[in-house]
Amino acid sequence: MHMADALISPAVGGTMLAATVGIAAYSVKKVQNDMDESKIPLMGVMGAFVFAAQMINFSIPGTGSSGHLGGGMLLAILLGPYAGFLTMASILLIQALFFGDGGLLAYGCNVFNLGFYTCFVAYPLIYKKLVRKGVSPRSIFVGSMVSSVVGLQLGAFSVMVQTLLSGKTELPFVQFLLLMQPIHLVIGVIEGLATAAIVAFIWRARPEILERAAIGETLSDVSIKKVLTGFAVAAVIVGGLLSWFTSTNPDGLEWSIERVAGIAELETPDGIHKIFSEIQSKTAFLPDYGFKTDQDDVQGQPAVEDEESWPSVDAGTSVSGVVGGAMTLVLAAFMGWIINILKKKRGKAVA
């Protein structure tokens, strides 16, 4: 559900970027309360894992479409809403800048759609309420399922509102809605199952992580080495190998656009859209999670789609999965490190 720049106007893109920056600044301030050295690597490793997981699209039978995990609910449950939102912002920034996945002008929209509704709506208002009487396999399953579905439905609806406010007449609102919401309902159910399985595994291995994240306490006296190692190994396997098995079908957003507008991608307008497109073509050294080709350097030329095989055993995909995960790990961990330093300085100033 990564929006391209062609789907939004500069006014909508700028407004959503300002909103995202504001929420990120608020999250930095709030996350200082439960940030310590032990949580920094968890932010990095979870960021790398979600980056890798988003590379795998699963086919949706009978539709010709596909979907991938958003990961926002998983991050909110394991890290808390504020650190979860900041980690999601890190993932989407790496994807947009270096892999050309999601537009730079649309960056604020993508962070808001995938991070805000899961971390600040579905997590506190649904998941936490469903597990407040006690964490158990049943409450984790129900909480993960319902919150994942609602979070993704809100994100999909937000995409349509943003295209409507951007004046995209190629995407009539009602017709677009009747495709976007049902296809993302299916994707949300699968995301809920995956989130429930991962959270249940963590609960059995280290229940303190969930309990501390829920009440905003530090993990300073909790050993999380096995959890970190497990997610790091999983990130390498998923990004480096399982990414070969990603579906070649268009994702839910592209599929909906294709059925409404007749094409999977709208034409990028001139002006500021072209400027952002040129910037992205220079920064994206692994475009579309593969090695760069001569055609990627040609501006304004429509991409020629090669006949795709499945599974797509490709060194460029593996390199993208491993390198992207490592870059996300470094950025998320660096962000956590900076926040921890600010916390210490604030503590000294108060003392």
What does this entry look like structurally?
The radius of gyration is 20 Å and the shape is globular. It is 67% helix and 2% strand. It is an all-alpha fold and 351 residues long. It has helices at 10-31, 39-54, 72-79, 81-99, 107-131, 137-165, 173-205, 207-215, 225-240, 252-261, 272-283, 315-350; strands at 58-60, 65-67. The longest helix is centred in the last third of the chain and has 36 residues, at 315-350. The N and C termini lie far apart (46 Å).
Low-confidence stretches: 300-304
Number of helices in the DSSP assignment: 12
Rg calculated over all Cα atoms: 20 Å
Question: Based on DSSP secondary structure assignment, what is the total number of beta strands?
Answer: 2
Write down the secondary-structure element order: HHEEHHHHHHHHHH
Give me the side-by-side strand order of the main sheet. 1-2
The gross shape turns out to be globular
Average pLDDT over all residues: 90
Secondary structure category: mainly alpha
End-to-end span in angstroms? 46 Å
Strand content: under 5%
Helical fraction equals: 55-70%
Largest sheet: 2 strands, antiparallel
